[in-house]
Specification:
The protein has 506 residues and is of the alpha+beta class. It has 12 helices and 21 strands. About 1% of the residues have low confidence.
Length: 506
C-alpha cells in the first residue's frame, strides 16, 4: 500500500463527494466511480446498451479527442495521491489518463457547476500528466500539488472504462470550523482536519474510520485489531485538526459486542509542527484507564484531567478489540496572530489579492496564495508564501522585481499601492538619506547591474546602510546570470516575509 492511501479519500461519497459532469456515460454511469464498495463483475449480466459494468464506461470514440469526468470533492484538501482502478476492464480500459484540479470558493451545486467546470476557460491545473494505465488493475499515482482544491477532472484517452477513482489527501477545513471562540467543535473530526498518524494494529479495519462523520454502520466501519496473544495493548495516534483544549471525549463501541476492549485510556501531547510526537515524551494523561462496555457510547467529561492546549492524542485500548468512533470535543486555541489571520481569511478575493500584491508583485504567487486560504495561523501563511515563491517560474520572479523601485529611487516600473510605496520607502530609508556621492555610486552600480542582468538590483535593504548595500551590489555584479537570479529571488523572499509579518501584525 502506498503511504498516501492512509489519508482520507477526499472524493468519498460519505464525505460529500459527487460526480457532477461527464462528456459520455453510454455503457456505465459516472456515479459508479465513487461507490464505496469494491468493484464486482457479474458474468452474463447485460443492459439494453451492452455488458453491465461496475464503473464508468464511455462508448468507443470514432472522432479525435478524449473523454472526461468531473468530481466535486467531499472536503477541500491537498491531494497527495490518486487511485485509478480499472478492475474488470480488460479489453475496454483507457490506454492513458491525466488529472487536473481546481479550487472554487463558496458553496457548490451540481446544476450550476457542471456547466461552469466543463467550460474550457476554467482554471484547471494539471496534477497528473498523461500517463499509461494498466487494465484490470489499481493504478496508484503519487501527486505533488501544494495547493488545496475542491474539484478534479479525470481525463481518459481516448475512451473506455474506469471502475473507481480515489483521491487521497489532507483536508483543509473551512476557516469558520476551526476559528477561535467558545464554541466547541470535534477537534479530531476528518472534516476539521483530524488525521490518524499511526496505529499498533489495523488487521481487520483501518483506524481512519474512528474519525469519519456519522455513526458506524456496522462492525467493519470502525477500527478493530487482531486478538492479542501476549503482553501489551493496542493504540492509535491522532493529530487534531487544530490545537485546542479538550472538554469532553466520546468513545463509541457500537457494533462491537464480543470483541470490544476491556478498557481504554487517552494521552495527549503538545508537539511542535513537523516533529514526530511519538519521540517526544512525556505524554500527559487526559483520561485514566477506564472500563468500557459492549456496543455503547461512552461520554467522558468529569473523568478528564486538565492538560491545557494539545495537538495530538493517543487512544490506548486494553488489550485489543474494536472501537467504532472517537469524538474529541474542545475549543480551538487562540494564537497570537489568529485574529489577523482570520481577517485575512475573511477578506474577499479582490481585497485579499490586493493585500498579497503589496507583499509580492507576482500575480501567480498571489493567485496561489488565494487558493491556499483559509490559513490556520500565521506560521502557515509564512510557510505557504515561501513554498509557493520557491516553486515559481523565472517570469514570475521577474514580474515581482518590477514592483520595486531601484535602490535610491521612489518610483517602480509597475504601479504600487500607497501601502506598498510606504513599505518600500521604509525599507530603503538609508539609501534615501544617503549623501550625494553615495547616491551617485548607487546609480552607477545599478546601471551596470541592469545592463548585465536586464532587471533591477533586488536586495532586502531593511536595516542596511548605503555602504553595505553598495558592497552587496558590487559582489553580486561578479555573479554569472545563472547564479544571480536565484540570489535575487532569495532577497525577494526575505522582503515578502517581512511584509507579510507586518500585514499580520496590524
Amino acid at each position: 500500500m502506498k503511504d498516501f492511501q492512509s489519508l482520507p479519500d477526499l472524493a468519498s461519497e460519505r464525505l460529500g463527494g459527487r460526480v457532477v459532469a461527464a462528456n459520455d456515460e453510454f455503457f456505465a454511469p459516472k456515479k459508479n466511480l465513487l461507490k464505496e464498495s469494491k468493484p464486482i463483475f457479474i458474468e452474463g449480466k447485460f443492459t439494453s446498451r451492452g455488458k453491465w459494468m461496475d464503473g464508468w464506461e464511455t462508448r468507443r470514440r470514432r472522432t479525435p479527442g478524449h473523454d472526461w469526468c468531473i468530481v466535486r470533492l467531499g472536503l477541500p484538501g491537498i491531494i497527495r495521491g490518486v487511485v485509478v482502478d480499472t478492475s474488470f476492464f480488460r479489453g475496454n480500459f483507457p490506454s492513458h489518463c491525466s488529472i487536473e484540479a481546481c479550487a472554487i470558493p463558496g458553496k457548490h451545486s451540481s446544476k450550476s457547476e457542471s456547466v461552469a467546470l466543463a467550460f474550457p476557460k476554467s482554471r484547471w491545473q494539471e496534477i497528473l500528466p498523461k500517463t499509461a494505465l494498466n487494465g484490470d488493475s489499481q493504478n496508484l499515482f503519487e501527486i505533488i500539488s501544494p495547493e488545496p482544491c475542491t474539484h478534479v477532472r479525470l481525463n481518459i484517452y481516448p475512451d473506455g472504462g474506469v471502475a473507481r477513482l480515489r483521491v487521497h489527501g489532507e483536508v483543509v477545513p473551512a476557516a469558520a470550523s476551526t476559528s477561535s471562540g467558545k464554541k466547541e467543535i470535534d477537534l479530531a473530526a476528518i472534516e476539521n482536519g483530524g488525521l490518524v498518524l499511526a496505529a499498533s494494529d489495523e488487521f481487520f479495519s483501518e483506524p481512519l474510520h474512528l474519525l469519519m462523520p456519522g455513526r458506524a454502520r456496522n462492525m467493519g466501519d470502525g477500527w478493530e485489531t487482531r486478538r492479542r496473544r501476549g503482553e501489551g495493548h493496542d493504540w492509535v495516534v491522532v493529530k487534531l485538526g487544530t490545537i485546542g483544549e479538550i472538554r469532553r471525549v466520546e468513545v463509541d463501541t457500537s457494533h462491537f459486542k464480543g470483541n470490544f476492549p476491556e478498557s481504554c485510556s487517552i494521552e495527549t501531547i503538545m508537539s511542535p509542527e513537523g516533529k514526530n510526537p511519538a519521540s517526544e515524551p512525556p505524554w500527559a494523561t487526559l483520561l485514566p484507564r477506564t472500563k468500557l462496555r459492549a456496543n455503547a457510547k461512552h461520554l467522558f467529561r468529569k473523568e478528564l484531567h486538565p492538560v491545557g492546549p494539545v495537538s495530538h492524542l493517543r487512544l490506548i485500548i486494553f488489550p485489543d478489540g474494536g472501537v467504532s468512533r472517537l469524538r474529541v470535543w474542545g475549543v480551538p486555541e487562540a494564537s497570537a496572530h489568529l485574529d489577523e489571520v482570520s481577517n485575512l481569511n475573511g477578506l474577499s478575493n479582490k481585497a485579499a489579492a490586493a493585500a498579497f500584491l503589496d507583499c509580492c508583485g507576482s500575480r501567480e504567487w498571489v493567485r496561489r496564495m488565494l487558493a491556499r486560504r483559509p490559513f490556520a495561523g500565521a506560521d502557515e501563511v509564512l510557510e505557504a508564501a515561501e513554498q509557493i515563491w520557491n516553486g515559481l517560474a523565472r517570469k514570475d520572479w521577474l514580474e515581482a522585481f518590477k514592483h520595486h523601485p531601484r535602490i535610491g529611487e521612489r518610483k517602480a516600473e509597475r504601479k504600487q499601492s500607497v501601502k506598498a510605496k510606504a513599505w518600500s520607502a521604509g525599507e530603503q530609508a538609508a539609501a534615501e538619506s544617503a549623501p550625494i556621492d553615495a547616491k551617485a555610486a548607487l546609480i552607477e552600480a545599478n546601471r551596470a547591474y541592469e545592463e548585465k542582468f536586464e532587471y533591477i538590483f533586488i536586495v532586502c535593504a531593511s536595516g542596511k546602510t548605503t555602504d553595505e548595500i553598495l558592497v552587496l551590489l558590487k559582489e553580486r555584479l561578479a555573479n554569472d546570470p545563472a547564479a544571480e537570479l536565484p540570489a535575487a529571488a532569495e532577497e525577494q523572499r526575505k522582503i515578502t516575509r517581512l511584509r507579510l509579518e507586518k500585514l499580520l501584525a496590524k
